[in-house]
Design brief:
7-stranded mixed sheet; 2 domains; Rossmann fold; 13% strand; single chain; 7 strands; alpha/beta; globular; 44% helix
């Protein structure tokens, strides 16, 4: 094969290869969404979040995550964090609230189904002077899902190591990121039970910080709502609030920070109070 033919083949391969990603202007925004196809970082001018002071009943996770994030923002050692536990208890709200309370960190949200493209994202961030908090909400793995292998690039970094300017926070309803019945089933049926689940179960061990979230009691539930009322100027007596909030909780069949916020939104609407 002559040189001209080789050059034509090389030119054709160059045309088929994806164009290199343009480095975004990270000074223009503090939050981004990672888009896997086509690969791009989409600026988010206004992050949907509540003030960190309004997150009640999660004092320990709040203090630990904020301290860890502040260390990271100052260039000090910090750990990846897994926030796991009960639905609606403020796991993702806490991540976004901490980002809003700590200066000097960019937030990048990545969808679980886009984890396979995380290597390209890390390469894009590696050369930046900014510091990045990668955030994956509702992270879990089922069946033959192999996306967890891509996550190891974030947690362990492979040969190159995780970029020093990148930290990873994830939320999940599962402590080990996979259902307990799947863990037990693989232990019972695997050819080598120890190896059958080690990769997936040990993934959660790669997070230096585990923060558990549990269903709130009634007093905390009511205190959360009262905190919202005080912040937004919604006037309602304690007796009326208690009666309405407990009835609202009963119709939902659960009690959580999310249910508290949903009741408050309904209350504010009835009272004619705008939340924006």
């Amino acid at each position: 094969m002559n040189g001209d033919a080789l050059k034509r083949i090389a030119d054709a391969l160059d045309r088929l290869a994806p164009a290199p990603l343009d480095t975004p202007d990270f000074t223009a925004c503090d939050a981004f969404l990672w888009q896997a196809s086509p690969q791009a970082l989409i600026p988010v001018p206004n992050v949907s979040r509540i003030d960190i002071d309004l997150l009640l009943g999660v004092d320990y996770p709040r203090d630990v995550l904020r301290a860890n994030t502040e260390q990271f923002s100052r260039g000090l050692p910090a750990n990846n964090a897994l926030l796991w536990g009960a639905r609606g208890m403020g796991k993702s709200s806490l991540v976004k609230a901490v980002h809003g309370a700590v200066d000097g960190v960019k937030l990048i949200e990545i969808q679980r189904e886009d984890l396979a493209s995380v290597g390209a994202l890390l390469n894009l961030l590696r050369g930046s002077d900014a510091r990045f908090l990668l955030f994956c909400d509702d992270l879990s793995f089922d069946g033959d899902d192999t996306a967890y292998k891509s996550l190891k690039a974030v947690l362990d970094g492979g040969v190159e190591g995780r970029p020093e300017n990148v930290l990873f926070y994830a939320t999940s309803n599962r402590r080990h990121l996979m259902p307990r019945d799947m863990i037990e089933n693989e232990r019972q049926t695997g050819v080598n039970p120890a190896e059958a689940v080690e990769e997936k179960v040990s993934l959660s061990d790669r997070f230096g910080i585990w923060l558990g979230f549990h269903a709130c009691d009634q007093d905390t539930y009511l205190a959360i709502i009262r905190g919202y009322c005080d912040r937004y100027g919604v006037e309602i007596s304690d007796a009326e609030l208690r009666a309405e909030a407990i009835e609202w909780q009963a119709t939902r069949g659960s009690r959580s920070g999310r249910v508290a916020w949903q009741y408050f939104v309904d209350l504010a609407g009835r009272m004619g109070v705008r939340l924006g």
